Amino acid sequence: MPEVLVIAGEASGDLHGAGLVNALGALRPEWRFAGLGGVCMRDARVTLLEDAEHLAVMGFVEVLRQVPQHYLLLRQLERRMAGGEVKLVVVIDYPGFNMRVAAAAQRHGVPVLYYITPQVWAWGAGRLPRLKRLITRAACILPFEAPLLREHGIDATFVGHPLLDRALNLPARDEARASLGVAADTPLLVLFPGSRTQEIRRHLEVFAETGRRLQARVPSLEVRVAVAPTIRLDASSVPFPLVHGASFALLRAADAALCKSGTTTLEAAVAGCPHIVAYRTSGWTYAIARRLVTIPRIGLVNVVAGAEVAPEFVQERAVPDLMVPALEPLLDRSSPQRARMVTALGEVREQLGSPGAAQRTAEIASAMVV
User: Fold this and answer.
1) CA atoms within 13 A on the CB side of 301
2) pLDDT, tens digit, for every residue of 236-250?
3) What is the DSSP letter of 186?
4) CB atoms < 10 A from the CB of 1, how many?
5) Distance CA 326, CA 329 (A)
6) How big is the chain by its Cα radius of gyration, in Å?
7) Closest by alpha carbon to 173, among 79, 96, 251, 70?
8) What is the structure's pLDDT at 1?
9) Of 227, 253, 305, 348, which residue is least crowded by CB atoms under 10 Å?
10) In Å, what is the CA distance from 78 to each residue of 35, 86, 103, 332, 342?
11) What does the pLDDT look like over 336-346, one tens digit per residue?
C-alpha cells in the first residue's frame, strides 16, 4: 500500500495538512498517510510520528534548541523513506526542518510537493536555487508566490488560500456573538496572542494590559482571549474569558482584534474584522531578522495588500501606550478608520483566490505518483 509522508511542524500546518489529507484520501483511498502534525491530522487518520506541539518554535536563536530533536526525527523519516513504500513526501511550511526532509527524499528518489512554500519573498531569497533542486512541485497560497518561484525554474501553482475553505460557512455576527454570550450592542475586543508557547510568554501580558486599558476607556467593552489548539493556558492567569479553537467565530463576533503577526491577520481579513498587528521576539532573533528581512511589513494582511492596512507594532512598539489609541477607533462601528479598514480587508480577501485550495493541491499530489 503506497504511503505518503505529510510533514507539518505547527498549528496552521496541521490544520492545512488535515484538509489536504482528507481531499487526497478521497482521490486515492488506497493510500495511507503518516508524518508529523497535531490533532487535526490525527483526526484525518494520519499516523503521527511526532506531535507538532513539540516542534513549534519561531526565531533564529530559538530554533537552535530544536536541532537535536530535528536530527532524530529526520533519521526516523529517512529510514521510512528507505523502506521503499513512501511514494510521495508533502512538506507544509516549516522550512528550517522541511528543507532537510526534502533533501532526504531526494536522496531516496521520492518526489516532494511543497505546500505553503517558504517565504523567500520576505527573506532568504538565496534559498531559491536549493528549493529548485530539492522539490518536485510547489503549491502556493499567496498570489505573488507562484510567479516568483516560476521565474527561478520551480514548477509552482497558485492554489488559493486554504483559509477560504474554512470560511465557506462563516457565522453571521449575531450568531457568533450568541455562541459567545455577548449581546449584539456590546463592544467586543478579541486578543490573539499566538499559537506557540514562546509567543504566549511574550504577548499575553501586554495584550491583556491593552485590553484592561481599553476597558477603562470603554466601560461596556468585553474582551475574549483566543486559545489555539496547540496551547494550554491557565484561566487564572488571564483576566478575560478564554475561547478555545474558534478563531473565525471570534473574528466574526468581534468589533476589533489585537492579533499576533501571522495567519491570524489573514483570518481577520477573511472574516472582515478590523485589527492591529503586534509581535515580539527575543532580542537576538530581532537583531538577526532586521538584517535578513527585505520587506517593510510583517503582517500577512499588509504583505498581500502591499500597504499598511492594519497598523503594526513590533518589538519595543508593541506596548499598550501605542496599541490602545490604534484599537479604540476600530471598536467604534461608526468611525471612518474602521470603515476604511473594512473596505481594505475585503480587497485583501479578493486577492486570496477562491475556495478549494486543499482539493487543487490534492489533485497535484495525486498526479505526482504514477
Assistant:
1) 33
2) 889 999 999 889 999
3) S
4) 7
5) 7
6) 21
7) 251
8) 79
9) 305
10) 12, 10, 10, 55, 47
11) 999 999 999 99
Q: Which CATH architecture has domain 166-351?
A: 3-Layer(aba) Sandwich (3.40)
Enter the DSSP assignment of 172.
P
d(CA 271, CA 243): 17
Q: What is the DSSP letter of 290?
A: H
pTM value is: 0.84
The helices-and-strands tally (H runs, E runs) of the chain is 17, 13
Identical fold between 3-160+354-367 and 166-351: yes
Between the CA atoms of 103, 108, 111 and 112, what dihedral angle is there, to the nearest 10 degrees? -30
* CATH of the domain spanning 3-160+354-367: 3.40.50.2000
Q: DSSP letter for 170, please.
A: P
Q: What is the Cα–Cα distance from 102 to 172, expressed in whole angstroms?
A: 42
287 pLDDT above the threshold of 80: no
Please state, in angstroms and rounded to a whole number, the distance separating the CA atoms of residues 16 and 244. Answer: 18
Give me the phi and psi of 72, to 5 degrees please.
Answer: -65, -40
Residue with cell 528507505: 82
Domain definitions of the chain by residue range: 3-160+354-367, 166-351
Kindly state the cell numbers that stand for 39.
490533532
